[in-house]
Amino acid sequence: MNTENSTSFHMLHTVIKDDENANDFWWQSESLAQNVSLRLDLETFFQVTKIKIVFKWFLPKAMVIEKSMDFGKTWTPVKYIANDCSKSFKYFRAFQQGNRNELCKAIFYELSSQPKSRNDVTFYVVNSAQLDEDITELTLATNIRITLTEFQDLLLSNNSDSETKFFNNTQFYAISFVEINGSCYCNGHASRCVANDSITEEVKAMVHPKCECDHHTTGEHCEQCEAMYNDQPWKPSYISVTWI
């Protein structure tokens, strides 16, 4: 799927269904298309803390998770994931030490000629070393993009025509589930969020986008003071400090 070209979008209604299991659905890329992106539009600002991807086929050899904070105009990588970061991403060849290397997560994948029925990749946006920082900049996103950049290597016993055909037929990506955990973005001035007017059906575990603002604040993200509460300039609220 090319997310920059609307004519090549692979929308949700084109997912594949298992005829023997009515509840088994998955997204599958075009065969032999190696550089493929999935884009998730969150419609407003959310603070994303965890991303889980469940593959129904071989894990990719390398992938990139990016976020946008301006509704898809620009993108920032938040995690590279690969069997070998320095081999899959030129960016890391010159930076074997230091913070840049923390951007890439190495995953161990045992080579096989047959795929597992399920392979999970879980990524936490904020690690334990960053908990003392202001995590807003790290977690804030309007869109998430997952780019699968390389097919996994396969174990082939010989170069027969049948194995070559099998190899070509297995060169695709398949994802059965993507879970994004996080919270609505209210600048620390709301204890909960509610559904906006466009949401007519309640979905289990869904994070709603509309802040119920406290502390005499108002706005979509509680980003300004209410009328008659302007003695002090508006500021975001933190656990230890509330500006009211």
Note the total helix count. Answer: 3
The count of β-strands is 13
Order of helices and strands: EEEEEHEEHEHEEEEE
Poorly predicted ranges (pLDDT <50, ≥5 residues)? 94-101
Distance between the termini: 47 Å
Helical content class: under 10%
Apparent shape: elongated
**CATH class categorisation of the largest domain:** Mainly Beta
Largest sheet: 9 strands, mixed
Which assembly state applies to the chains in this document? Answer: single chain
- Based on secondary structure, the structural category is mainly beta
Number of domains: 2
Q: Report strand %.
A: 35-45%
Rounded to an integer, what's the Rg over CA atoms? 21 Å
- The whole-number mean of residue pLDDT values reads 78
Q: Per CATH, what is the topology of the largest domain? A: Jelly Rolls
CATH superfamily of the largest domain: Galactose-binding domain-like
How would you describe the overall organization of this protein?
This protein has 244 residues and is mainly beta. It has two domains: 159 residues, Jelly Rolls; 58 residues, Tie2 ligand-binding domain fold, CATH 2.170.300.10. The strands form three sheets. Strands 1, 2, 3, 4, 5, 6, 7, 8 and 9 form a nine-stranded mixed β-sheet that branches. The chain has a two-stranded antiparallel ribbon with strand order 10-11. Strands 12-13 form a two-stranded antiparallel sheet. The longest helix has 9 residues.
